[in-house]
Structure formats: structure tokens, C-alpha cells
């Protein structure tokens, strides 16, 4: 499963203090059981000193194989301090705005 692969690779590479993954494919116009849209929340001090772009690039590199198989990956990447300042909550995902087939 793609979700398991994402989880294993990110946890191994980042050693996060907090990690969550949500398969948001059900919110989109894809067949039931799809693994096409994911939301990741990763809290790791490995992000210290890295810009938002560099953090995303690092995760994309870790997940290079999986990125070829999925349509969307929402990334919420924080240091431990940022996560605390954020109230230990990631933003909610917006509703799907396309792909309705209409």
C-alpha cells in the first residue's frame, strides 16, 4: 500500500516527534479505495533552519517513488517549537474543487 510506504519512509528519514497521515482520496472523484490524495503532518527538529521550500523538497526526495503514483500530497511540516506555537493542530483540508466529471 502507498500509505504504508509513505509512513515507513518518512518516519525512518525524519524520526518525527509527531506524524500523521490521512488518505483524503475519498474526498475526491476517484474510485473507492484509491490512494491518490494524502495529507501529511510531520513534526521533526530535522526541519530546524530549513525554509518551507527546503522542507518540502526534502520530503519529495524521500518519497520520490510514491510521488509518481499519487495525485496530491498536502504537507504540513513543523519543528517542535512551531508545532507548539501552532497549537499542535494542522490546518483542515479544503473541499475538492475539481474532478467532478461534470
Automatic annotation (TrEMBL):
GO CC terms of this entry: iron-sulfur cluster assembly complex; mitochondrion
InterPro entries reported in the protein's UniProt record: BolA (IPR002634), BolA-like_sf (IPR036065), BolA/IbaG_stress_morph_reg (IPR050961)
A Pfam cross-reference name: BolA
Similarity remark: Belongs to the BolA/IbaG family.
Name used for this protein in its record: Uncharacterized protein
Species classification: Eukaryota, Metazoa, Cnidaria, Anthozoa, Hexacorallia
Amino acid at each position: 500500500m502507498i500509505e504504508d510506504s509513505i509512513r515507513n519512509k518518512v518516519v525512518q528519514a525524519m524520526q518525527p516527534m509527531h506524524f500523521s497521515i490521512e488518505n483524503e482520496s475519498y474526498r475526491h472523484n476517484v474510485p473507492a479505495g484509491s490512494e491518490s490524495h494524502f495529507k501529511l503532518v510531520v513534526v521533526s527538529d530535522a526541519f530546524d533552519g530549513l525554509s518551507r521550500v527546503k522542507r518540502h523538497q526534502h520530503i519529495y526526495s524521500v518519497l520520490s517513488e510514491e510521488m509518481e503514483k499519487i495525485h496530491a500530497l498536502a504537507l504540513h511540516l513543523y519543528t517542535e517549537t512551531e508545532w507548539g506555537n501552532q497549537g499542535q493542530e494542522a490546518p483542515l483540508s479544503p473541499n475538492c474543487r475539481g474532478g467532478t466529471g461534470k
